[in-house]
Specification:
The protein has a single domain, classed as archaeoglobus fulgidus dsm 4304 superfamily (archaeoglobus fulgidus dsm 4304 fold, 2-Layer Sandwich), CATH 3.30.2170. The protein has a nine-stranded mixed beta sheet, sandwiched between helices. 44% of the residues are buried. It is an alpha+beta fold and 222 residues long. The protein is built from five helices and nine strands; from the N terminus they run αβββαβαβββββαα. It binds two DNA strands through β1 and α2. It catalyses: Endonucleolytic cleavage at apurinic or apyrimidinic sites to products with a 5'-phosphate.
DNA sequence: GCGACAG
DNA sequence: ATCTTGTCGC
């Protein structure tokens, strides 16, 4: 299939250094779906938070039929059409995207955060809850705030961050136009003492609501 | 062939 | 990803 070649081309266009202006609006991005849904829909949600108040200033949700099933390494092709449609509904583009999934910590350095960042040309960060590729260069400490870089085939592609005591670590990786150090800065700045950063949390919640609303039985007649 | 495997 | 309330522990 040529999707993999497409990812190589996108990865070549990804900027791994900081190329972002003042960050005042941070967008959390997430997608919800249900295996039990015969229509095979994907529900994308974007929530824009003001920095530093972390107050929601805009949000959008779009539901579309899934273009393809979930295939490891090809997640972006399933979720990005709905995400782009949701982004298009925002009154203004955000300054930074926080995406639920990997950035460059991907077999072809083109996880969904990188893919989305490049096609929109917006700065992006990948915030994943589990591993796709790479290994930590050392064991991750148990203490909250513990951090360790993740390397894959000789490249530093991200880091594990113990965002909260006794919680599984976050897998942080640069997406587009953001360095690893800056990615970590924005994740830590939006944690609010919880495991997931607020933009991601809010988007996850909003996506879940969008899915339940779309799947809810039609309003009763009579 | 075997093991790994974002959401 | 999703199925799901209360409950145990710091």
């Amino acid at each position: 299939m040529k999707l993999r070649r497409c990812q190589l081309e996108l990865a070549a266009r990804a900027v791994r250094e900081d190329a972002l202006g003042e960050v005042r609006r941070i967008a959390g991005v997430d997608v919800s779906s249900s295996r039990f849904d015969p229509a095979r829909m994907v529900h994308a949600a974007v929530v824009v938070l003001d920095w530093p108040s972390l107050t929601p200033v805009a949000r959008a949700a779009v539901s579309l039929p899934a273009p393809m099933p979930y295939i490891t390494g090809l997640l972006a092709f399933r979720e990005i059409p709905a995400i782009e449609a949701a982004l298009a509904q925002l009154p203004d583009p955000p300054d930074l995207l926080m995406v639920d999934g990997q950035g460059i910590a991907h077999p072809r350095r083109c996880g969904i955060a990188t893919h989305l960042g490049v096609v929109t040309d917006l700065p992006s960060i990948g915030v994943a809850k589990s591993r796709l590729v790479g290994q930590p260069v050392a064991p991750l400490g148990e203490e909250p705030g513990a951090l360790v870089e993740v390397r894959d085939r000789g490249d530093v592609v991200g880091a594990l961050l113990r965002s909260r005591a006794r919680a599984n670590p976050l897998h942080i990786s640069p997406g587009h136009r953001v360095s690893l150090a800056t990615a970590l800065h924005w994740v830590r700045a939006t944690l609010r003492g919880r495991r997931l950063p607020e933009p991601t949390r809010a988007a996850h919640e909003w996506a879940g609501q969008a899915r339940r609303a779309a799947m809810a039985p039609p309003p009763g007649r009579e």
